[in-house]
Design a protein that fits this description.
heterodimer, A: alpha+beta, Alpha-Beta Plaits, three-stranded antiparallel β-sheet, B: mainly alpha, 2 domains, rod-shaped
Amino acid sequence: MDITRRRLLALLPAAAVAWEFVRAGTPELSPNYKTSDHWWGMLIDITECIGCGSCVRACAQENDVPEGYYRTWIERYHVTDYAIERPHVESPNGGKDGFPLDQDPSGKNFFVPKLCNHCADSPCTQVCPVGATFVSPDGVVLVDKNYCLGCRYCVQACPYGCRFINPKTNTADKCTLCYHRITKGLTTACAEVCPTGARQLADLKNPKDPIHEYLRTHSVQILKPHMATGAKVFYNGMDGSVR
Amino acid sequence: MRRAIPAPKVKLLFKDIEHLLRLAAVMLIAVVAFVVLRAAVVPKSFGQYGHYRGDAIAEVAARPVAHAGHEVCEGCHTDVVDQKKLGRHAELHCEVCHGPQGRHADDPASIKPPLPDTGVICARCHEANSAKPRSFPQVASADHSGGLACNTCHQPHRPKIQDQAKPATGAKR
């Protein structure tokens, strides 16, 4: 086949795509990490949270989260008197810059950090039409961004509002529980920078993890238990007004 | 008795269903094409663990780490560790205030982290707010310091002022 200018121009993009695949290769998990040995979750102690926003900033820096989008965020609850069903909730810039001084110190005020609950029976993975999001064998809900179409079904399906469409990639994005860190033996970025230890990474399959003792001895709750999502983010000291 | 010749009989058998055979041939080609195309298009690792691409797990895990983690920091900055464990910031990890230092940890010689501004950093945690737990130390910074940087009086690694006057060995929290 003669290589004419036209044919060469047609071939170049195809070659570029092919080369991209060759160069990328197939990454491998750390050799010491076995997915079958872990079942990840998180523990959040609301009584310890000071709403400093360190977790939100660290998450954005660790995971390159675009401005105005949040994989984790902090809500400030304001509950007056007995109005437990009508809390006033605010989260300015996801709590990234901390919280402005409250004008109404009466009633009950507290912070609630939120993130993906890494549900064992997650509604978001069930609705994906192409198998681009899934619960990994170690219990982390992940998105395959090379496979995601950006159809937004999962964004609608998450009862906790934890997913968004990343404007850079136009694919679904969410908390990975810092999967690139926990598979290397590190804790998540949010737990690493939490100054009061209000956030703790928990391995529910590790019998030596202090989570087991904690769950036995504390009144912990999960968010929206009536939805039977099998959420694995446990909250200590959670008020009844938290949605 | 004459015996029927088999050949014409077969021909007779297929005579009226020739169009069905053609249809079957077309369908067979379609099935083969589907199987071949599917094998070519669906990634090898799809279905390895479930209805998703198994390789995606390792791809997510391949992301570089931005926060080095306090164990890495403490490997070199032992003097700061010694200071910190005497005060109330003992449990505080380095990157809470100093920000992500993964690049500094990889190349400590050429990448130097900037010094944090205590006026901003300290207030993030210690600015008074009724939603913070009562027991947490809080100040209204405008009244407390009148705009002075916090490290004018407090040493951030060991913040209680009277701590710093005492010798390091006998100090109480």
